[in-house]
Design a protein that fits this description.
5-stranded antiparallel β-sheet, 51% helix, disordered N terminus
């Protein structure tokens, strides 16, 4: 085998392995997108690279300030399970409020209230979600957050 042919094989193998790891994903969960995961995704999308240490630190400091501000304004929630996940894990979790989700993840890319569209978003999970979900917030990476009033009641993710 020539040296040129030998060097061409690894990229092909890597490309095939990469395709194999991206199977379609459809899930319903109680814990969704983490704030840092979304931050890194957005930086990569905008800049074509992962965030630097300084960018991560600036982002973490800003998030810490927003979380601290929320806890000062809502002292009654400071010891709830959702708030510990909000403050420590920084991950969207069923039971959180819209304000908590917005602090962690920022504004959704889209908000949906149309029942037919909600059904399409929920896919096979609609029978379990339909009685409680009046609104969905859509985020990158296929994450959908379903709300009843101000509370997050369900989470799905679909990536083809």
């Amino acid at each position: 085998m020539s040296r040129r042919r030998a060097l061409a094989v690894p990229p092909l193998v890597l490309a095939l392995l990469g395709c194999a790891t991206h199977k379609p994903l459809e899930q319903r969960t109680t814990e969704g997108l983490a704030a840092e995961q979304l931050f890194v995704y957005r930086v990569v999308e905008q800049n074509g690279r992962e965030p630097t240490f300084e960018e991560r630190q600036t982002w973490q400091d800003a998030l810490d300030q927003r979380i601290s501000g929320y806890l000062r304004e809502h002292p009654e929630a400071a010891n709830s399970l959702e708030v510990s996940k909000f403050r420590l894990l920084r991950q969207a979790t069923v039971g959180m409020t819209k304000e908590q989700i917005r602090i962690l993840l920022g504004a959704p890319t889209e908000t949906v209230t149309d029942r037919e569209r909600l059904e399409k978003l929920a896919r096979k999970y609609w029978p379990d979600i339909r009685d409680r979900a009046a609104e969905a917030w859509l985020y990158p990476l296929g994450w959908n957050f379903y709300f009843e009033g101000d509370r997050l009641v369900d989470i799905t993710q679909y990536r083809p």
